[in-house]
Amino acid sequence: MIKEINGLHHVTSLASDAQTNNDFFTRTLGLRRVKKTVNFDAPEVYHLYYGDAEGTPGTVMTYFPFQGARRGKAGTGEVGTTVFSVPKGALPYWESRLTEAGTANLTRDNRFGAARLRFSGPDGDGFALTETEDDPRAPWTGGGVPEEAAIRGFHSTDMRLADPGATAELLRFMGYEEADTQGEVTRFHVPGGNAANVIDLTRVNAPMADQGAGSVHHVAFAVEDRAAQLSVRKALMDTGYQVTPVIDRDYFWAIYFRTPGGVLFEVATNEPGFDRDEDSAHLGQALKLPSQHEHLREILEARYLEPIRD
């Protein structure tokens, strides 16, 4: 069994417009944009990162905003809901704030005894805020949300699967333990992990999802360093998973593999972090390009990457 995984590192999704995406996360949800860079494989598209003050693993939502991309179609084999942690008693504030912002599909529910507020992002993305007691993470408060209500980081992701059995076995192998079951939802958590250490698996009778704007592209799990990552990679490959070589993503090293349920998993290092090329006071302000794309800066800025208004 793998013992190096601490919980979530980041969640990466697709969007249809960079400015709309930026405004939703920085102005509506009050997160900090901690990095403005480009998709390594499609440098004409931004890669935007939002999180706490430092972009701490377990807090960072990232997006590839493909301009004008069609919306995805919900189904199985995907993350249906990304859930953020907020303090106990914060939901009335958020219900008022999101209503005023015109946020779609606001609904209250309760999962495993915790009150939640569900809503949709600009591209129909599925989100929820869940009240969490004793979350030790310090929030970013530069986005206009008071500290007593601000998002602390991820709580969990909810994966929609036709048959969760094989993915449940994978999570157990990755160090997760089954915590509870509520109807068609089974909850797993990493004991002693970071504060973003919960995964829900939901059995859904539906066709496979068709990925597009609003869809989660992949879920990344956190390990401390490259040595831990290599250990995880070997364990997965020894079990029969097809895992990519280690890829340098500038702010972390990454490996990827496809799960039995269809969701793309990444294992990312906590090192080196988002301050490797910007000081903490100015994270996310300048356009940072991977070294292999630096020679394209002039053409990218002139033709493809429309400036984002902060």
Secondary structure topology:
Layout (H helix, E strand, L loop, with lengths): L6 E9 L2 H11 L3 E8 L2 E10 L8 E6 L12 E10 L3 H10 L3 E8 L2 E7 L5 E7 L20 E9 L3 H9 L3 E6 L2 E5 L8 E6 L12 E8 L2 H13 L8 E2 L3 E7 L5 E9 L24 H8 L6
Parallel strand pairs: 1-4, 5-8, 9-12, 13-16
Antiparallel strand pairs: 1-13, 2-3, 3-4, 5-9, 6-7, 7-8, 10-11, 11-12, 14-15, 15-16
Give a concise summary.
The chain has 310 residues and is α+β, with helices and mostly antiparallel strands.
Number of helices: 5
The radius of gyration is 18 Å
The poorly predicted ranges are none
Alpha-carbon distance between the termini? 45 Å
The biggest sheet amounts to:
8 strands, mixed
Strand content: 35-45%
CATH superfamily: 2,3-Dihydroxybiphenyl 1,2-Dioxygenase, domain 1
Strand order in the sheet with the most strands: 2-3-4-1-13-16-15-14
Which fold name corresponds to the CATH topology? Answer: 2,3-Dihydroxybiphenyl 1,2-Dioxygenase, domain 1
How many separate domains make up the residues?
Answer: 1
Helix content: 10-25%
Going by helix content, strand content and strand pairing, the class is: alpha+beta
Write down the overall geometry: globular
* Structure summary, number of beta strands: 16
Second-tier CATH architecture = Roll
Order of SSEs: EHEEEEHEEEEHEEEEHEEEH
Mean pLDDT across every amino acid position:
98
CATH class: Alpha Beta
Provide key terms for this protein.
single chain; 310 residues; 2,3-Dihydroxybiphenyl 1,2-Dioxygenase, domain 1; eight-stranded mixed sheet; 38% strand
